[in-house]
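Marked as duplicate of an earlier ticket. Keeping the data here for the record.
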Amino acid sequence: MNRIILLVAVTLAIPSFAQDKKIYTTTSGELIFSFANISDNGSEEGSIIRFSPVVNIQNWVNIDKSDHFGMFTGLSIRNVGFIYDVPDDSPVKYDYPDETNVRKKFRTYNLGIPVGFKFGNLNDKFLFVGYELEIPINYKEKTFIGEDKEDKNNVWFSSRTNTFNHSLMAGIQLPYGATLKFKYYLTNFFNKDFSTSDGQGGSIKPYQNVDVNVFYFSLNFFLLKNVDFYYKEK
């Protein structure tokens, strides 16, 4: 809640910050390579690299106070998730307790509102840091037994995830509109209070003892600056 209040306060402060400043928008696509730190029922596990080229679009409103300092906010839609070989004793494996080789692929589509700051030569190369509030709007889970896909679950506004995700980011803007970014999600991917049927007339909370923090590296490319193509011929 404190992070949400801070986001609202910073957003409300933008108009006063923006007076007599250079304001413009940039739109970019994002190629995401994601991983996750996973603690599953007390066991520390690793994830497999996940590549998500679509659909990741972000539009930033840039407010440059000078040639060397500015801030940004905006709106994004992002495909975030992880791939996981589930251990035999994991509660996440409740639907397939007798199978030995279970691989899960999880992802959400998130709407995000970033707030951040830029430092450096804003007309060339600069660093940026920020915070982003994200709302998961679509959840997908795929289950593979060996090489065969056994199940798929696709839900809008699923209760399997938390209502809000909080994340921190840092990156470097390179010449010609390319950006390298690192992002870490402070919020657990799953809602620990989610419960479902155990198939025997009772219920189970499969994520109660599961902690997953997704992080990723991404490569971004500017597509538009204001309403003009960024790479248009000069």
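See parent ticket for discussion. The mean pLDDT is 87.
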